[in-house]
Amino acid sequence: MNTTLKSACVAVALLLPSAAMSAPLTLTPANPQPSAGNLTPGLAVNYALRNHGRSLVDAARVLKKGKPGTPLRGLSYEDTKDGENVLTTEHSEKIAAAISGYIKFPASGSYVLEFLSNDGLKIVIGEQEVGLYDGVHACGYVGEQEVTVPQAGYYTLDAIYFQRKGSACLLMEWGPDSDGLEQVPDSAFFH
């Protein structure tokens, strides 16, 4: 295989989500656990508008000058139609978002996590990268990730997301296995 073709194949492989589930990751609970009375439902978000980038690196760069936005209700933003607003902005394209807060797992045990994004998403929960899907693409699955949750409670959540143009989506699913995935209820997210 010539060097140019080999480099192109490696680049494509890095941009596409993993087809097979990665090895299980053990999440680290927030320490200390936040008091429920000190939390607000949803996730905090900072936005950078007019993001002309096409990657998570570009999004991270413009987010250095991001401004707080209306908190997200959770990670339950279905695929939009062209021209509809992205997340909680009043804009329909060229958005970068830094998302932070907590997710509350109701019980310890093994979970399978899955995300859908349009366009790029990098998400870290409980100090583990559980989803990565870079580049410009239609609403699609990131790739399942099995995690071990050592105790019920709150786990930190940090994500970088961007949407270039066209439609947009950002969703999270969880379940005991690949066949039992359900959308994570908005009531599981706090900041």
Automatic annotation (TrEMBL):
Instruction: Give the top-rank taxon of the lineage listed in the UniProt record for this protein.
Output: Bacteria
Question: Per the record's keyword annotation, is Signal included, yes or no?
Answer: yes
The answer to keyword Signal applying to this record is: yes
Question: What lineage is on file?
Answer: Bacteria, Pseudomonadati, Pseudomonadota, Alphaproteobacteria, Rhodobacterales
Identify the InterPro entries for this entry.
PA14/GLEYA, PA14_dom
Name any one Pfam family assigned in the record.
Answer: PA14
Name of the protein: PA14 domain-containing protein
* Alphabetical keyword list: Signal
Record domain PA14: where: 38-188
Which residues belong to the signal peptide in this entry? 1-22
